[in-house]
Design brief:
232 residues, alpha+beta, 31% strand, globular
Length: 232
């Protein structure tokens, strides 16, 4: 969409817009652009200092337990050594359970790990899937995807990258999910990532709320999976 918008502005001989933040390539939803460089820098500072409230929606496989909470586990990028070597973000917890006696043991901190905090809340559950509301407090690369997949064991529907660790393969879906989506497992690789930036709240003098409805494919999946969400 952004290249098309840039071309339209160019054809209209209008000033180019300034991007204020980033959104992962496969994520849909709200994007903030500013008309002037000064306003863009002001908004970028709000993002950098974590003053922007960000609310995402995601359809995940499985139900998080508990249904509401906070995931606070650092994240680090690591190389996955397999027949197709590649890099992924993963958890870098500060503690682990000792296999010998089950006691909690502090792990030496990975100096490349970044603090990552995500609030989550279950909105609806059906067909072996959930609709989740997510609020990333920090802004680490792929944070929501990693916290859901590896922290809660609920990977996002269509997240083929983080549904496995050691291999690059399409996501494996439960039978009931495939049935409701009228999909064969062999076609699962075509499922898009169901992660949507639903709302941004900017403190610019008065608070500005920017809301974006989920795209049609997301809405269709909600209907097929019978994930009913109360209107907010």
């Amino acid at each position: 969409v952004l290249p098309i918008l840039a071309k339209m502005l160019e054809n209209m001989k209008a000033e180019p817009l300034h991007l204020c933040h980033r959104l992962d390539k496969e994520t849909t939803g709200v994007m903030v652009l500013a008309r002037s460089k000064e306003v863009a820098e002001r908004i970028r500072l709000l993002f950098k200092t974590r003053q922007v409230e960000k609310i995402y929606w995601a359809i995940s496989l499985g139900d998080p337990d508990p249904a509401e909470g906070i995931v606070e586990i650092p994240i680090v990028e690591k190389e996955v050594r397999s027949h197709q070597s590649h890099y992924k973000m993963t958890l870098a917890p500060n503690y682990r359970l000792s296999p010998e006696d089950g006691k909690v043991v502090k792990i030496r901190k990975n100096r490349n790990a970044e603090s990552a905090v995500t609030r989550y809340r279950l909105l609806a559950s059906s067909s072996a899937c959930s609709l989740l509301e997510l609020q990333p407090i920090t802004g680490v690369k792929h944070q929501i995807r990693v916290h859901l997949a590896y922290g809660l064991g609920c990977p996002i529907l269509g997240d083929h990258k983080y549904s496995h660790w050691s291999k690059l393969a399409p996501q494996k879906l439960p039978e009931i999910t495939l049935k409701r989506l009228k999909l064969e497992q062999s076609k699962a690789r075509h499922l898009p990532l169901h992660l949507h930036a639903h709302r941004l709240s900017l403190p610019l003098g008065e608070r500005i709320d920017l809301v974006c409805k989920p795209p049609l494919f997301f809405q269709k999946t909600l209907k097929q999976l019978e994930l009913d969400v109360a209107k907010d």
